[in-house]
Amino acid sequence: MTDKPKTKGDFTLPGEAGYEDMTLELAERWGADAIRDSDGTVLSDKIVEADYPIYSTICLVRADNEWAKANRDKLQQNYLMSDPVVAEKEHIDIDLLKGFFREQFEINANDDPKTWWQVFDRTTAEEVTKDQWTFDKDSGAVTVQNVKKWHKYTVNFLAYRIWEGISMYNHITNDWGDREHQMPIDPIYPEAQQAMLNYLKKWLDEHPRTKIVRFTSLFYNFAWFWGDPAIQKFRYADWGSYEMTVSPMAMRLFSRAKGYEMTSEDFVNNGAYCSSHNVPSGRLWDWMDFMNEFVVRFGRQCIDMIHDAGKLAYMFYDDHWVGTEPWGRRYRDLNFDGLIKCVFNAFEARLCAGVQGVRTKELRLHPYLFPTGLKGEPTFMEGGNPALDAKRFWVNIRRGLLRMPIDRIGLGGYLHLVRDFPDFVDAIEHITNEFRTLKQFHAGGAPYTAPLKAVVLTAWGKWRSWDYVGHFIPGVEIYEVTESLAGLPVDVSFISFQDIQKHGIPDGVDIIINAGKAGSVWSGGEHWKDARVIEAITGWVAQGGGFIGIGEPSAVRHSSQYFQLAHLLGVDREIGLTLSHVKLPVTVSSTHFILKDFDGEPDFGKEIDNVYVLGSDTEVLTEKEGSPRITVNSFGKGKTIYMSGFKFSPENTRLLHRSLFTAAGKEPEYRAWTCSNIRTDCAFYPRIKKLVVISSSDTAETTDVFDAAGKSIRIHLEPHGIKIMDMS
Amino acid sequence: MTDKPKTKGDFTLPGEAGYEDMTLELAERWGADAIRDSDGTVLSDKIVEADYPIYSTICLVRADNEWAKANRDKLQQNYLMSDPVVAEKEHIDIDLLKGFFREQFEINANDDPKTWWQVFDRTTAEEVTKDQWTFDKDSGAVTVQNVKKWHKYTVNFLAYRIWEGISMYNHITNDWGDREHQMPIDPIYPEAQQAMLNYLKKWLDEHPRTKIVRFTSLFYNFAWFWGDPAIQKFRYADWGSYEMTVSPMAMRLFSRAKGYEMTSEDFVNNGAYCSSHNVPSGRLWDWMDFMNEFVVRFGRQCIDMIHDAGKLAYMFYDDHWVGTEPWGRRYRDLNFDGLIKCVFNAFEARLCAGVQGVRTKELRLHPYLFPTGLKGEPTFMEGGNPALDAKRFWVNIRRGLLRMPIDRIGLGGYLHLVRDFPDFVDAIEHITNEFRTLKQFHAGGAPYTAPLKAVVLTAWGKWRSWDYVGHFIPGVEIYEVTESLAGLPVDVSFISFQDIQKHGIPDGVDIIINAGKAGSVWSGGEHWKDARVIEAITGWVAQGGGFIGIGEPSAVRHSSQYFQLAHLLGVDREIGLTLSHVKLPVTVSSTHFILKDFDGEPDFGKEIDNVYVLGSDTEVLTEKEGSPRITVNSFGKGKTIYMSGFKFSPENTRLLHRSLFTAAGKEPEYRAWTCSNIRTDCAFYPRIKKLVVISSSDTAETTDVFDAAGKSIRIHLEPHGIKIMDMS
Question: Which CATH superfamily includes the segment(s) B453-669?
Fold first, then answer.
């Protein structure tokens, strides 16, 4: 790490009552300029009265449990699909909540089930007519009459959430025992809005020392369905999905706004729900737009009240962020002063850094100061190594911070837990100093970025830039790809199929990237049946555009090709329909520009197999069991590259970096401000003429950095090291 | 091999003019009782006049090239799809035969292209109207006007075959130089029928010494499209497909018979053609039924003529077998005396052995006496080891011969090639003796078969029993499964989805097996959306039936499940639609009855991943990266077993053998007449009280055989050995 002199500022410390001395000592040690509370902690007067601005967390939907208890019909709801039951006789009873966590969910028997619920024969995929079933409130079961023997039945029903998800998680993770369960109220009801505003007003009055109101977050939790603990703790988690925004009230308002009605099945969707990794239907887009409009409108009322109280409003870009859509067009209307993102990786740093319409961007580093991590792994307890975790996360995040500025960093959780981990305290001291160093370079202007504009094409497009749709799902190519991209000195943005349908390929774009498995929101699914998309991309590549496809790009079962851009890529995939077709032999030529800088075969993780070339023009750079792994093809004046998979690694990041230049037809322009050693990255800040070189390696590394003239500078780096060079 | 005294008979030797002494010497050595010619060989008078019955090969569709040349409009035809062309301007020219072997195909310009051809925009999957395109006979190109820029176009067109496929293969493989290319004529034309009957009559008169007329085979070759040799030799090969039966004449007759018209796209099918590995459409079934009726009707005329001449008629179950359908209901109407199948494996032996309506069944062993094998690998030339090949194939085939009788074996090709391979001559001597020994046991009655009836459920059902749909395609589960089944002492038959729809599960069935990848003819594809199938199987399992699913059993994207029998199997597969759903943890219990007899993990080849259990009741016997590989589940009184893949091996054959008993609820009945050593098999012939034990191992093996009382007999076997025990 850097040996720079100690610096101060831009760091938010989680304080903790009962540990006042420790709080203030660590504030000094880590250079904190703000102190926050966390869910489950309070700040004592001693802390609050110290000379630090105070961040106070607030979550309005779970803040006033008395109001919630008095208004149980205004709790938040969602649709659940009951577990399937196979009919063994003429009628069946379906215990709706069987398999779900009964402390989280309670069946909504207030809104007429016959109006709002649906029963399905999942064998035939047909709805059961309403007169065939009845709901018994006492048993919590639906009885279906005249069922077809051996068919499978499910019920889409509405459930209130009687324990707010994030506090439920915190409660259980930290053994809060018999502390009262907080219930989430739904601001869709005017009465709830009024209660929340009343509460906020009072709260503001009671928190005169609070400088920053930290929303964790606004109103609706990402989708998180828990299970019967005897079977499985979690059933469904999607960090970007809108399941938990649903209620009859909202559905009625929606139909007034959009002119048609949503059904329970629009949300349940054969039990797949509205997962962010699936291509959203037009109806789901409409719902999200409707909820976004509502969240921004009512959110703004809350934020105005905070501003009126002379305080700032920050938002946590997790937990209850659904509906705020920081990359959407309405986000600036919320008028937030700050946005805080918890981060493990570079792509999350870019996710936060790229948001428009908010002044201060803060990263909350991991590990969170809890005994265990998000997957239940030991952290601040025996068996944990939080210092190593922190360094490992930081090394990833730092790649993103070379490229785009972030204003602040911070931690969260129970500060007292760090007591037994002095190496963690040291690690954070290093990290905070390094952060401040990097930040100061950005203040002098943007770093060198290659003359190369890449867009990532997904079904979400800009709305979910840097792919904030479900945290990191292993084996999903897009996370791996965006993590690589997040640290590269190239211009990256995100577009959707609708963008192309309406406006074609934006001017100035050099490369389109499409990465994902068939049917996923990232590959694009049914969108690839749209001839407008094929026409636009094909014509653009013919004119010199570059296309990089990873995994199953442009894949959908349609017509005579599986990759709908097979004619551009020069490869397609055998999915079992043409096994009797003899495929062209694969000849590997492994001397391509893309493959320089390392030997051996790239590790793409679980990659796509049974790929075949369509012609001998398709250059195959590497293959496995006869299936090409990296290919390069020409179409008109353009170039395309196919990769059978991707995994974030130094080797693959370099492959991608070089591929961008090949696809753009700009190979000669690759060299400037790159490193010879793939485990190192560099950024050159031309206005202040500073060069930053970082290593993501666990061991010492040597690298040559090439300047704009192609001259090389040799640099030695410590493990996870950083070097700053004055180039003036 | 056996040390039995030398025996004679039941062996067909390929003779060769110019090698008379060798022919007669090997006839003696191998115990031949018949001599045949082969494509490319003739028998001299000296051979014909020796005291052996003569088989003479005949292939009527390519027999009279003079007639073919004089009637080029009556050559056989098929639809081809031109390679796709991307439109770069307002019109495109498509060179129809580009990429195809122009010595095999000639565009049919006689039948009006506007009537019989179709042009498709393969980007939109829509047909281009007939007024938009024109065909130029001289250039062999179709020009399409007013195309959509950047869309991809193809033409379905009719091509005559101007070189008959099998003789083309033999010609090229054996360098026949400028020998005239034989052209296939189409018996769909009455004139061609008459010419063929005239030819046959004359031929019969000219072959007085011929005892057996060996058809290779009847009229239509399996589908085999060759490519431009500069690009690829073969483009498409499907040993069971009807592409090559098509002509305008046949299509007109079809529409009269079936009341509707087939289109070119029914055969081209997005370029996938009518591959036997895809689920046949109702229209394709109709076409196959129509052609089968025709082939049997006209075939019978030819066979009657042979019988009238006092000769026998045998059919080769390869090459031009399409339309004969030996497992179909009309086959016996052909009145063939013999059926000859070329074999590599046990399942092919069963394929031949199980055919009804023909008296004599003969296997033509491999290797064929050609310099190279079917994949171009060296055989009877430097680098080849035909003796080892022969033994390896024999060991596989022998497993099938333990279970079902075959009447004869034989070889084919150029006999002189064996000169340089004395070990091959020895090997065949052993094999012929062994074959005769096994045959004599069957003469005493059927061997012991466990009280266990298994049916394999595919979209073909009985019509393509033992899965003769495309030779052995690597990685296709059904071949591996049927190869294992072919040597097991259980009753195996094949049923289709239509059988279940119409008649339910047949009486007496203990186990249904469904094995294959989603969408394949073996798994069943869209058939699994049919609730009647789900009802029948579910109800039957609930009453005690056993279901074994391998790979992607019952899989189709439909409703809330991917495996439509997930409720029976207790597992389903994640195909990317529910990534955000948390799956139940997998706990492995590896002490199940199924896993006895060997340690370690089975090798299933490329298996299905991302499988998950639906409940804790599902027993997981082994898993990989969290994905169950073998599971056992109960439903009602029945049992189900899931396997993530299958590969024919001693270990997996044993797994399957035991699984059958578990699924059937008959584990206690497993032991009788089984071997302890998985590399050995045995058969007990109760009427003559003989026990045969064979080893498929390259090394010496010891095994215990358990008799019906559970008493064990220890047996030692040589590599690939056989032992006969008298149990009386």
Answer: Class I glutamine amidotransferase (GATase) domain (3.40.50.880)
